[in-house]
Design a protein that fits this description.
heterotrimer, A alpha+beta (179), B mainly alpha (478), C mainly alpha (406), A: alpha+beta, Alpha-Beta Plaits
Chain lengths: 179, 478, 406
């Protein structure tokens, strides 16, 4: 038997989204705080059950969009009014209606890029190695099985107790996750 | 339906939703579910991923080889163009915009339905996007690629296309932004990048599935790279779903803006037949119409070749047919408005443009457009037609052709008859125009072949979510 | 009895009578003043008030058909308010009489004698002449009232019988009905608004008018629904989540509204053709520019910003206030469409421009309330029988979508 400080955590395998939702809620009630659930599709309410509520992606995207839009407008103004003013059909140098389309496009572009890279950064992706991949059964996490992982760093973690707790949840199996 | 009388007064939000779903089921009897019963997570994953991981069917090789020949035609036509110059095309003053711009607008229009299906339907909780969104998005990417080539090929000196981008050049020359051609650069680049992000993000969880299902080393490594270490953690899902929704919310106005900017290429000039304020929404509707038609053109054969009838059910086809009808009606409304306003304006040039479209040298163009985009789509009012896959395919083919001819009508007829009779001219595409156009059809179809072979073409993670929801509703109704 | 539970509160009755009295008094003041002192101004003010309130009715009819077509819970819950708004079209037919009487005061094409645009007037005479315009108006009203009548009737019949054929019929008629209404709105807006400015034309104007109407109809219905469901049995049934949906729909319409408005401005501004740009010159010279700026700020930037917030959309009070602002700004917008045609040199506001909308509005609201009181506010066939899902689940699902917009 491996000691608590030599493993990453314990993993339980479930068959359906309802089972894992129930299991995660029970684990939360049992006082576990450092856990994760890996599922083939997003499960409503599961993020709350493993104690993960807030996401900062909207703020990141909003700031990305605001910065992109501001830069675009300033850039257009600077190009067409300050550094390279030419008369086109007698229209004013600062042709605000004409500046709107490119400004809009750049706002959307920057906000989308911010959302993508913000999401990747918050998820710490790309991440080629992660301990959960050491469990052979885990390859079905992206296919048809649902996994609950309780990490060894959890203050309430104890190999034997936690294993017994996970087994009480009627899983298909409980596995050690090597670090 | 006998117990219509309500029993209780407390009605949370979702309660009424389920009742309206029932009501809609009653209104539209015999609607098939989005995923046919009998699918499990396992069988669904297997069916979709085996198309990529399994053996290549012979039909695929045959089709890909044939298309490769057309790709060669394209490369030859473009090579000769670079060698000789745009003189090989039929364009000349006054008709300086010919096939190249017609093809450009046609392709970029096709590129609209993909992101629209994905983004708007996601925001509206319409689950019938699930099985077709990836195909539609891939179609978008490939169609934009075809479209973006044409303005560059048309430049005369295509290697200098980067002059359109604002950068500090040694000559201290900058683009000027009172021209819609510079807006186009921003619009199309943004649209391509955002569509790519949207498509890739949608496929990210499935790349993880493919990595885990692949048995051979090379697919394992390649899918491992593009999956970025995705492990389906619920924390990942939370940020992922949020980012996906944000990009959908951004992509929706973006789709509208892109074809509006394309329409501004015409409207900001004062050429009769081009300078019309309805052009932005009219072009957007036309783009969506041709996009839906192209999605159907692709999905119906793919579905029957790979036997995906259980996942892409007839309900998808019917829904897309309905959208095709709606967008066709907006386009028809725009034709009518243009016609009426050209008379109402009392402007001789506008009036003449309408008459010459109908009865002038290009009369057949206008009448073909009316046939393809006005008369034929009206068949979709009938449920019998919408539920007949062959009939829908037939209508879609008409629209594919009709929308190309419509762009020809707008671009060529207006240029051929401008203000001065001394500058009236006729135009016809040369063999090189046709070779380039047919070549892009080949490139597009060839890329679709590669996509179908290399990437799971139906979103597995979303299908599972849908399956889980279907089970849930089935459970509560039982 | 459940039917009584979902009836509108008793205070609506007071609103109905107060509005009627205020409306009639305001109308009477305008009529008397106009008859005695200023014919022309009376008809102008009356026209803008009439176009504004007719657009509200048409917007309700349009939203009614749209929700039948799209399905979904948001529309089913608020359906009765759209139905009541559409039913006021009968009243609007009656109120059209003064407009018909004042055509020659309002429109150059209806005025005999010399004008500044003789060629154009001769050209459009077959279309723009008093008889044909009146025939067309009759045609529009046959279509609109017919649709409003059928949709109201079948919805009521569904309440009584629960026969699914009625909901099927309502969906069936809404498709062609919506298409015909959009078409009729194009010609109506051309006849009544566009032709105020001779020689000016814009092909997108039909869309602009339709969007204005939808925004008005939606804003009024949402405001009324928010006030009605604030207390009493409806407040238990209609959770804030409904208003989340309404907020999103309002946001969508506002974004589309700005899109069509900006498209028209950009194309006309950059083309700079004299017969087109005149419309914007008249509407931006003198003080009119400030009116345009006010619309930009209060009808686009402000609603856009606040509607991105989830908590704002969930709050009935906040949403009702915003709807009030939108309705006010839409009135300013119609004022900006109509009045600059007569005062091209600078800003001009007559007191009747304020009193006439109050007059028609009072009568309109009174008719609206009267129709609302006749039936349960929540369609009875929607009141459900079971609880398939937990509220938390829905909350979390909607929360995801909601945060995405921020």
């Amino acid at each position: 038997m491996i000691a608590g400080n030599e493993i990453y955590g314990l993993m339980a395998e479930f068959d359906s989204d309802r089972d894992i939702l129930l299991a995660a809620r029970r684990a939360q009630e049992a006082g576990y705080t450092r856990m994760d659930a890996c599922t083939p599709h997003p499960v409503e309410g599961l993020a709350d059950a493993v104690g993960y509520r807030k996401t900062r992606v909207p703020v990141i995207a909003l700031s990305g969009g605001a910065i992109g839009g501001a830069i675009a407008l300033l850039l257009l103004y600077w190009i067409n009014v300050i550094t390279y003013p030419i008369n086109v059909g007698g229209r004013p140098m600062a042709s605000w209606p004409a500046f709107i389309p490119p400004t809009f496009e750049l706002t959307v572009l920057c906000a989308s890029l911010a959302a993508l890279f913000g999401m990747l950064a918050l998820n710490r992706l790309p991440q080629p190695y992660h301990p959960v991949f050491n469990v052979p059964e885990f390859e079905r996490a992206t296919q048809d099985r649902f996994f609950l992982v309780i990490e060894a760093s959890d203050p309430r973690f104890d190999v034997e107790q936690t294993r017994r707790f996970l087994e009480s949840l009627n899983p298909l199996g409980v596995y050690d996750v090597e670090p | 339906m006998s117990d219509q009388q309500p029993q209780e007064a407390n009605v949370p939000h979702e309660e009424v939703r389920s009742i309206t779903e029932e009501e809609s089921a009653r209104r539209m009897p015999g609607r098939p579910p989005l995923i046919l019963p009998g699918y499990t997570y396992r069988s669904l994953t297997e069916q979709i991923s085996s198309i990529v991981l399994g053996r290549t069917p012979l039909g695929w090789w045959a089709g890909a080889f044939f298309l490769f020949l057309i790709v060669m035609i394209f490369l030859y036509a473009v090579g000769y163009l670079f060698y000789t110059g745009v003189g090989i095309w039929g364009v000349n003053i006054p008709i300086a915009w010919g096939f190249a711009i017609v093809d450009f607008v046609w392709w970029i229009g096709i590129g609209h339905a993909g992101t629209l299906i994905s983004a708007i339907l996601l925001l509206m909780y319409q689950s019938w996007r699930t099985s077709i969104n990836r195909i539609a998005e891939a179609m978008t990417l490939f169609a934009i690629s075809q479209a973006a080539m044409f303005p560059i090929l048309h430049l005369g000196r295509p290697w200098l296309f980067y002059w359109l981008i604002p950068y500090p050049s040694t000559m201290n020359v900058w683009p000027q932004f009172r021209s819609s051609l510079t807006w186009d650069v921003f619009a199309i680049t943004t649209y391509f990048i955002v569509s790519l992000i949207f498509w890739y993000m949608g496929a990210l969880p499935d790349f993880g599935t493919m990595r885990d299902r692949a048995k051979r080393r090379i697919p394992q490594v390649l899918f491992g790279i593009v999956a970025l270490g995705w492990r389906g953690s619920i924390k990942h899902w939370r940020n992922y779903q949020m980012a996906y929704l944000i990009i959908a919310a951004l992509a929706t106005p973006l789709v509208v803006s892109v074809h509006s900017v394309v329409s501004l290429d015409f409207t900001i000039s004062i050429v009769p037949g081009w300078h019309s304020t309805i052009f932005p929404p009219y072009f957007v509707a036309g783009a969506l119409l041709s996009g839906f038609a192209m999605v159907l053109t692709l999905v119906i054969p793919i579905r029957s070749f790979y036997r995906l009838h259980g996942l892409i059910t007839d309900r998808y086809i019917e829904n897309m047919a309905r959208w095709m009808l709606v967008t066709a009606l907006v386009v028809d409304y725009s034709y009518a408005t243009e016609l009426f306003m050209s008379w109402y304006s009392g402007d001789v040039f506008e009036e003449y443009m309408s008459i010459t479209r109908m009865f002038g040298a290009y009369w057949w163009v206008w009448w073909s457009v009316m046939m393809c985009n006005v008369v034929v789509p009206q068949a979709l009012w009938f449920r019998g037609v919408r539920r007949n896959v062959m009939a829908v395919f037939f209508v879609a083919m008409f629209i594919n052709v009709g929308m190309w001819i419509e762009r020809f009508m707008i671009i060529v007829v207006s240029l051929s008859r401008d203000f001065l009779p001394s500058s009236w001219e006729q135009y016809a595409g040369t063999v090189w125009d046709w070779a380039t156009f047919i070549g892009t059809l080949g490139v597009f179809a060839w890329l679709m072949f590669l996509f179908v072979r290399l990437v799971p073409m139906i979103s597995m993670s979303e299908s599972k979510e849908l399956l889980s929801e279907q089970e849930l509703t089935a459970g509560t109704h039982a | 009895m459940i039917e009584d539970v979902y009836r509108v509160p008793e205070r609506v009755r007071r609103v109905q009578w107060t509005a009627l009295v205020v409306g009639l008094v305001a109308l009477a003041i305008c009529v008397v003043y106009g008859f005695l002192f200023d014919h022309a101004q009376f008809f102008r003010s009356y026209l803008l008030a009439y176009v504004y309130w007719l657009a509200v009715s048409l917007g309700c009819l349009g939203m009614l058909m749209l929700q039948h077509l799209s399905g979904g819970v948001w529309g089913s819950a608020i359906r009765r308010l759209f139905e009541a708004g559409a039913a006021t079209l009968v009243l609007m037919l009656l109120l059209a009489v003064p407009v018909a009487l004042g055509l020659d005061e309002l429109y150059t094409w209806a005025r005999p004698g010399p004008s500044a645009h003789p060629e154009w007037l001769d050209h459009v005479r077959p279309y723009l002449n008093v008889n044909f315009v009146l025939i067309r108006m009759a045609g529009y009203f046959v279509l609109w009232i017919g649709l409003a009548y059928l949709l109201n009737r079948w919805s009521g019949a569904l309440d009584g019988s629960g026969d699914p054929r009625y909901s099927w019929r309502m969906t069936r008629i809404s498709g062609p009905g919506a298409a015909l209404c959009v078409m009729s709105a194009l010609f109506f807006s051309t006849d009544m608004v566009m032709s105020l400015e001779p020689e000016w034309y814009s092909t997108i104007f039909g869309f602009v008018f339709v969007t204005d109407a939808l925004l008005e109809g939606m804003a009024l219905s949402v405001a009324a629904f928010a006030l009605l469901s604030e207390s009493g049995p409806l407040s238990e049934v209609i959770s804030p989540l409904y208003f989340l949906d309404y907020g999103k729909i309002l946001l969508g319409i506002i974004v589309f509204w700005s899109y069509v408005g900006f498209s028209q401005l950009l194309i006309i501004w950059i083309g700079n053709l004299p017969h087109e740009v005149v419309w914007y010159v008249h509407r931006s010279s003198g003080g009119w520019m400030w009116v345009a700026m006010a619309m930009l700020i209060f009808m686009f930037f402000l609603p856009l910003l606040v509607l991105l917030s989830r908590s704002f959309k969930r709050s009935r009070r906040a949403l009702a206030t915003l709807c009030g602002l939108i309705l006010l700004m839409e009135l300013v917008r119609v004022f900006w469409y109509v009045e600059p045609s007569f005062h091209t040199d600078g800003f001009y506001l007559h007191w009747m421009d304020v009193v006439a909308p109050i007059g028609i509005g009072g009568v309109w609201i009174s008719a609206f309330c009267w129709w609302l009181r006749r039936r349960p506010v929540l369609p009875l066939y929607l009141v459900p029988r079971r609880h398939p899902r937990s509220v938390e689940e829905i909350e979390s699902r909607i929360g995801v979508a909601e945060n995405a917009e921020r």
